[in-house]
Amino acid sequence: MLKENIPMSNIPFFKYQGAGNDFILIDNRGLEYSNLTEKQVNFLCNRRFGVGADGLMLLQNHTAYDFEMHYYNADGRLGSMCGNGGRCIVAFAKAIGIINRETNFLAVDGAHYAKISEAGNWVDLQMIDVQDIQQDEEAFVLNTGSPHYVLEVSNLEALDVFAEGKRIRNNNTYKEKGINVNFIEDKGDHFFIRTFERGVEDETYACGTGVTAVALAKAKQAKTTGHFSKAIKVLGGDMRVEYNYDGQTFTEIFLCGPAELVFSGSIEI
Ligand SMILES: N[C@H](CCC[C@H](N)C(=O)O)C(=O)O
């Protein structure tokens, strides 16, 4: 029912997850899969009819970089930058022998440097510099490659993240372009974060550009210069954000966390 009436093809894929944010990775260096339609990507990401994922990425050759990342949200549309997807595609590039322990690759928001552990399952990904952090009432709004809304709450375990996130994402200010909505609770020794993602239109287990946005917004709010955010816990695991902050601009921002192959296979579309 979700399938489109086009010539069938068998697509080899690799399923990765980074702190529970999960992705379908497709090696498109031969450009065989460039014509995937919105409906097909949505089908592949569907958890009941397809492989199941929060997003899908095509890895492609680039003349000036190790590779290029094309990211689609689960709804089938091209997304803005995906931090955990970026970390997973680096692990994938190492697994298929394109890179070794370091890389420079191109994504929708520009060039990214990343380093990867020897075992290939922990990636530190450099994110774009950030200066502009706005406020919307008590929330922070900033772009870390993707647009994010950051709201501090209490009793985050009990919050209906789907309902509240959906309401904010679709309010008059944000409904046209959408926004990713992060709820955060300061637990003393760590931040606990839950995110409603645009393009998935649901809560995900982690959002890399989202935890980056939280770390930067909280650093600005605390008016501290420095290098590390508090430890970060999300539904799918633990993450870390590092940065240089001079009181105005955040540079050398690194999003650090796990990136693991879950399984591989092929699927007919
Ligand atoms: N999960 C992603 C965010 C994807 C952004 C996407 N939801 C959009 O707004 O286009 C991350 O780890 O950063």
Element string (H = helix, E = strand):
EEHEEHEEEEEEHEEEHEEEEE
* CATH third-tier fold name of the largest domain: Diaminopimelate Epimerase, Chain A, domain 1
For the sheet with most strands, the description reads: 13 strands, mixed
The domain tally reads 2
- What's the CATH architecture name of the largest domain? Roll
Ends: how far apart?
11 Å
Number of strands: 18
Pfam family, one: DAP_epimerase
Family: Belongs to the diaminopimelate epimerase family.
Pathway: Amino-acid biosynthesis; L-lysine biosynthesis via DAP pathway; DL-2,6-diaminopimelate from LL-2,6-diaminopimelate: step 1/1
Function: Catalyzes the stereoinversion of LL-2,6-diaminopimelate (L,L-DAP) to meso-diaminopimelate (meso-DAP), a precursor of L-lysine and an essential component of the bacterial peptidoglycan.
Describe the model:
Its EC number is 5.1.1.7. Catalyzes the stereoinversion of LL-2,6-diaminopimelate (L,L-DAP) to meso-diaminopimelate (meso-DAP), a precursor of L-lysine and an essential component of the bacterial peptidoglycan. Homodimer. Pathway: Amino-acid biosynthesis; L-lysine biosynthesis via DAP pathway; DL-2,6-diaminopimelate from LL-2,6-diaminopimelate: step 1/1. One of its GO terms (molecular function) is diaminopimelate epimerase activity. The chain is of the alpha+beta class and 269 residues long. It has 2 domains: 10-127 and 259-268, Diaminopimelate Epimerase, Chain A, domain 1, CATH 3.10.310.10; 133-256, Roll (Diaminopimelate Epimerase, Chain A, domain 1). 17% of the residues lie in helices and 42% in strands. The chain has 4 helices and 18 strands. It has helices spanning 38-45, 83-95, 161-169, 208-222; strands at residues 10-18, 21-27, 55-60, 68-73, 102-107, 110-116, 122-126, 133-136, 139-143, 147-152, 180-186, 190-197, 202-204, 226-228, 231-234, 237-245, 250-258, 260-268. The strands form 2 sheets. Strands 5, 6, 7, 8, 9, 10, 11, 12, 13, 14, 15, 16 and 17 form a 13-stranded mixed β-sheet that branches. The longest helix has 15 residues, at 208-222. The protein is globular, with a radius of gyration of 18 Å. It starts with 9 loop residues before the first strand and ends with a strand. 45% of the residues are buried. 2,6-diaminopimelic acid is lined by residues 21, 73, 79-80, 82-85, 146, 180, 197-199, 207-209.
